[in-house]
Amino acid sequence: MSQPGRDGFGHDTTTDQVLEGIDLSGKLALVTGASGGLGAETARALASKGAAVVLTARDMARAEEVAKRIRESTGNDAVEVENLELDSLASIRAFAERFLARHDALQILVNNAGVMACPLARTQDGFELQFGTNHLGHFLMTGLLAPALLKGAPARIVSLSSRGHQQGSVDLDDPCFERRPYDKWESYGQAKTANVLFAVELERRLGERDVHAHAVHPGVIATDLARHLVPEDYERMRKRQPGGKLRLKTVEAGAATSVYAATAPELEGRGGLYLEDCHIAEIDDAEGAPGGVRSYAVDANAAKRLWSLSEELVGQSFPL
Ligand SMILES: NC(=O)c1ccc[n+]([C@@H]2O[C@H](COP(=O)([O-])OP(=O)(O)OC[C@H]3O[C@@H](n4cnc5c(N)ncnc54)[C@H](OP(=O)(O)O)[C@@H]3O)[C@@H](O)[C@H]2O)c1
Questions:
Q1: 182 flagged as catalytic
Q2: At 190, which CATH number?
């Protein structure tokens, strides 16, 4: 299902193990959705190796608490918090303007924020909430920050996808469920496939200029992401696992694949990859495959079409 990564790396590898011997001083990292869960741990781990880190959040008080703990535990004072609401194009544009006014170069971007399996809802601009937040919000933000990434090259962009992408591809004709019945899992799967396709197209456009993009499945980790789940959802998730059992990761192991994608020296010069358990996953279209990436999620033509559609929806072109 996957190619060998660094010796011994796998399901339970932690952020600190991934970063052993790695120095990130002089680099700037931006982590979205860092007020808790995987984002907070990703930010802590990167700061522990000397990176300056910007955490974005909606709940500023909670994120300030996280930042304070990171400064105290790592001794790194270069940890800032910024407000960013990915379900609002105006908030994203205002954030990007503030960010670019303060920083002209960015080396690590972790598009981590996400919402899962929520009831049908719409963003402030009318997009279906999961597609709008998980994909379109990050699409606009990444496009706006691209000049800083190019200036910061070599740079990496990590998009948090999920094994949930195996649920299905992106409906390019009706991504916002305007003409088809809403299904919360179909919607999550579509958004998480969009995260992989976005990495594929970013790589095609920026890879030659040493800005590389990857998508990751972090594993199954008990976080606030499960806030919308009901008992039947857990039953459904269990059934989809090998042996019918959910194999949970700690938060430190859950954030490890993001940190691996953002920093691993063995990935230098590579991009457009889908990683899981700190390994490069292979394409696997077998029904019930326990891992791997679906071929529709790395389809170069679909990736190009999604980029154009996303430009149309956010009302801005990024001729990168
Ligand atoms: N945990 C897992 O098992 C798992 C599995 C596969 C993939 N993932 C992916 O991993 C990523 C991180 O998830 P997690 O487990 O750490 O979940 P989490 O604890 O719920 O964190 C998600 C973060 O996204 C933020 N967010 C949600 N909607 C937002 C919006 N409209 N604007 C700005 N920020 C928003 C949340 O902020 P608020 O606190 O303000 O809502 C929170 O900080 C997600 O992309 C998720 O799809 C997780």
A1: no
A2: 3.40.50.720
